[in-house]
Fold these 4 entries.
Entry 1:
Amino acid sequence: ANLSSRTDYIKPAVVSKEIDICHGVFSNKKAAEHAAKELGKFKKQTDVWSVARLTQVELDNCDKPYLPITLGYKGFKCFKQDLYAIKHLLIAGRTGTGKTTLLKSILTSINHQPKNANCKIVLIDTKDFDFNGYSSEYLMTPVITNAEKAVEYLNQIQSDDEDIAIIIDELADLIAVKSDIQDVLVNLAKNPKIHIIVATRK
């Protein structure tokens, strides 16, 4: 409810006409883990077939860049959104509710992006735990685990021709160390080719 009431403040900051709040995509951690299981094992992206098949089917008659990301299950149905359409994504919840699991599902989707998507990844995990050792052909740089380096790297990002998904696990922890990361993210959010996906505790 608190987040929903603040959309009027968020919209001008990220230069967006609308902010959609999706409640109840996951009811608990078990549901989030079930969604991740359907996508395959995170460490073995080559084993994931469901996203690849769904993407191909949906893109058969699509003439524009389209990057579907699977967000889980809602009403026992696969809940997906086009990252290029929703632009940014905030994942909020208490510890243990499946935020990191959802980020892994999103990464799996991006790793199976259609050829015309052309989306790169910047992954920030200052806990240096859940994404330790993660690798992908779409990573622009190895996983960033240091707050100082995160701010320094993000300040250098510019994108005119390819999309970049900036994914941050536990934004609150990063802000606690480097509060100026908030201004950096707001400026990046104004770039139409940059998509910010953050998970944070409520």
Entry 2:
Amino acid sequence: YYTKKDTKVTVHHYEEGTEVKVSEDVEIPGKVFDEYETEPADDVPSKYELVGEPDNKSGEMTEDEIVVIYYYKVKDTTVLVHHYIEGTTTKLSGDVTINGKVDDEYHTVVAEDIPSKYTLVAEPANKNGVMEVDQVVVTYYYRLKDTSVLVHHYIEGTTMPEVKCESIHLIRHAETEAVVKHEFMSDTSDNCGFTEKGIEITH
């Protein structure tokens, strides 16, 4: 009498274009003419995705060993770079998208078209790094530069500096509107020589 010959199917899981294993080989023992079926590995690192299923993923065993190869490639991913006003999501420059693959290195920089009145708060901790399966978001924050206002006090209608007397009084001063009213008294004891009253300087 006759019996079916022993045979097998060997399944490989390789990185695309290589013979680098992303999962261990699988052997399916059987007999000639037995039906077989294979499937992608379930322990492939998350950075990989299946390229496609092989034509011989299932079929009928033969006397010769059948080799089934599943190929996997590193996933595409991105880095998204924002340039915002500090504490907001208001853009000072357009978003930048860096395309690559998982485990690629990336580098980001400060935008070159930020209005000159803004300054960088600090460089983000993840301004450089390695791309991940999930999109990496890098945010640069900017704030208005510190500045000052120089106020000159002139005699009305001239560029002559004002003489300040002891009897000058601050009438009103608010954050949004600074109004300073000086009263020059006729008392000769303050040696001002001004008799005008109610000079108002509004900023």
Entry 3:
Amino acid sequence: LLTRDGGCTPAWAPSGRTIFFVRYRARSEYAATSCGAIFRVGAGGGRARRVTAGYAARPRFTRSHEDPAVSPDGRRLAFTDNIACGEGGTSYFRLRVIDVNGRPMRDLAKLRQTFHIERRDPSWAPDGRRLVYQVQRGSELGILNRDGSGERRLVKEGNSPSWSADGHWIAFTRPAGRDDRLLVVRPDGSGIHALAHGARDD
């Protein structure tokens, strides 16, 4: 047991010594929506330390920080920032990058983030120079440089992108009836093909 107060969507630091995770809190016991903040804890356990304000930001329970992804050099943390979390708010998801201690960075500075394009669920390229992510509009996948430049659509429909360790492929899922298909695509958008579809537990 690493932490006594629960956690979701864990992400390892490359060193293997630290785990980042999301802790959710509801606005009230009657609230339908919970808002998250990102914490870190040593792999050996102990007290978790908050990295992002999330639901504790002012005004309280209007932000949610989710989907942590640690850069390959272990210095940066990309995540989803929902700036209108909770009851009565219209969710709006954008990408953010900070250092692993919670301090702001200039990464993504060239990216124009608006309410019309929502981005979430980032995954780093192995060299740390690019990010792939989900675009809420139409569930597309997008890709851009770490400074926010060069944004383009990778595939028309996809979820949960994950970059391969050698940098040659990006795996993702795509809904197909009651199941999800597992596919891969090259970072330039070529070579897309399915690996698995509707696999059963054997």
Entry 4:
Amino acid sequence: EEQRIMDEMTKNCSSQTYSRFFVPETTDRRHQRPKTFMTFRNRRRAESAEKPQYTTTDKLGQYNVISAGHDHSAFVTDKGKVYLFGSNDKGQLGREEKGKFSIPTKWDGIDIQRMAHNRVVSVSCGSAHTCLVTSEGYVLTMGCGLNGRLGHGDVKECRLPRVVEKLKTSNAFIKKACCGGRHTMALSDTSRVYSWGYGRTGA
């Protein structure tokens, strides 16, 4: 009976479509519990998923905020230092040169306002742009400017971080900002929400 069930399941299931199936309970003691069969290829994939690869960042200090975009990532340390890595094709890493950078590189350009205490407290990565929030409530954006996602009133690419002047002139103290694929949102200390960028779908 068991062999008949197995033959029927094998007949109805394609090994290319289904990587595993359960054998129903039978009177045979060897199969008193459902058994899982897995192909060798999927077994290796499952084993590799159980063993993640870690990157040591002990030398960089503790980090408070991390963010991953489409093809770039960033994190902020407890000392307000920003490290970015990945693709810089649109300037999303805040660097002039194009290319891909696999090693986290510290960005020291936060002294735009000439205030040493104006540190980065938050970072968010979008599809091809990056948003930074400082301890003084300023928002800086960089990268691809299509759809106005950078908030500078144009659609130009910005390869160096630039303060969003509209928020600054509005005396908005931003606590947190978040990048979507093609838009950006910011939350002020008065719980006011600001958004800009691609809005055709209601974003």
